[in-house]
């Protein structure tokens, strides 16, 4: 299995709703990521998990809450979002190597959740 | 911080060769990666340069010069399906990738 699966593919939510985005991979990757991408812009890093521990939080507002229940799953809990949070949310995974010079740094991305906040 | 600059758009003819440049300013640099993203799709990893020089993967090649803080992606024998956005990205600690501004490549017949 060489895929990262994200659900749902599309989500419309109100500003008072609580919802969760889910991401799953079975490649044995020990690093998982959440990125946010606005139209015609590059993906922007939100969170990094390595060995199921949060290692990087790019100053993301607390209305976004990540969770990594195990090495295969990554969730992003959403609460009280704003319309400007509407975007494509991408999950990715990668192996973690000991030798940074030779490690293949390729991410495998999921197809994303297109979120619209109304 | 990290910043990576790319040309916003490039147009090339089917069958030709095109080069997409990336200049960067970054600390904690481990290497330069390249991703392809079709409209509405997920980014797909293309290549990674940890060391200076050229890496070749089929029709795609990628180059890195650390002394010049510069890299490029070379696409040969362009096909219509190569029309997409291309992002360079730096690899940092925990494999944190910061993406460049992106280049939209249009391949025309």
Question: What keywords describe this structure?
Answer:
heterodimer; A: 118 residues; mainly beta; seven-stranded mixed sheet; four-stranded antiparallel sheet; 11 strands; 54% strand; B: 109 residues; six-stranded mixed sheet; five-stranded antiparallel sheet; 0% helix; globular
Helix content of chain B: under 10%
Distance between the termini of chain A: 36 Å
Number of helices of chain B: 0
What characteristic shape of chain B results from the CA principal axes?
globular
Helix content of chain A: under 10%
Based on the structure, what is the oligomeric state of the protein chains? heterodimer
Structural class of chain A, please?
A: mainly beta
Structural class of chain B: mainly beta
Query: Helix-strand pattern of chain B, N to C?
Result: EEEEEEEEEEE
CA-atom Rg of chain A in angstroms? 14 Å
The tally of beta strands of chain B, per DSSP, is: 11
Total strands of chain A: the figure is 11
Uncertain stretches of 5 or more adjacent residues of chain A: none
Share of residues in strands of chain B:
over 45%
Mean pLDDT of chain B: 92
**CA-CA gap between termini of chain B:** 40 Å
């Amino acid at each position: 299995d060489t895929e990262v699966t994200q659900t749902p593919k599309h989500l419309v939510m109100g500003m008072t709703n609580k919802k969760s985005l889910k991401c799953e991979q079975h490649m044995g990757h020990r690093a998982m990521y959440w990125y946010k991408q606005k139209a015609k812009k590059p993906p922007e890093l939100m969170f990094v998990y390595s060995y199921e521990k949060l290692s990087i939080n790019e100053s993301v507002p607390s209305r976004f809450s990540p969770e990594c229940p195990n090495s295969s799953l990554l969730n992003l809990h959403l609460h009280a979002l704003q319309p400007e949070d509407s975007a494509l949310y991408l999950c990715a995974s990668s192996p973690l190597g000991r030798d940074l010079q030779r490690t293949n740094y390729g991410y495998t991305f999921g197809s994303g959740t297109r979120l619209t906040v109304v | 911080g990290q910043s990576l600059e790319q040309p916003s758009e490039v147009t090339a003819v089917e069958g030709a060769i095109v080069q997409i440049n990336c200049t960067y300013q970054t600390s904690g640099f481990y290497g330069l990666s390249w991703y392809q993203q079709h409209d509405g799709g997920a980014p797909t990893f293309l290549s990674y340069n940890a060391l200076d020089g050229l890496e070749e993967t089929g029709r795609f090649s990628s180059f890195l010069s650390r002394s010049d803080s510069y890299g490029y992606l070379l696409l040969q024998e362009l096909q219509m399906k190569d029309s997409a956005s291309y992002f360079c990205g730096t690899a940092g600690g925990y494999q944190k990738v910061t993406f460049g501004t992106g280049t939209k490549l249009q391949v025309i017949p």
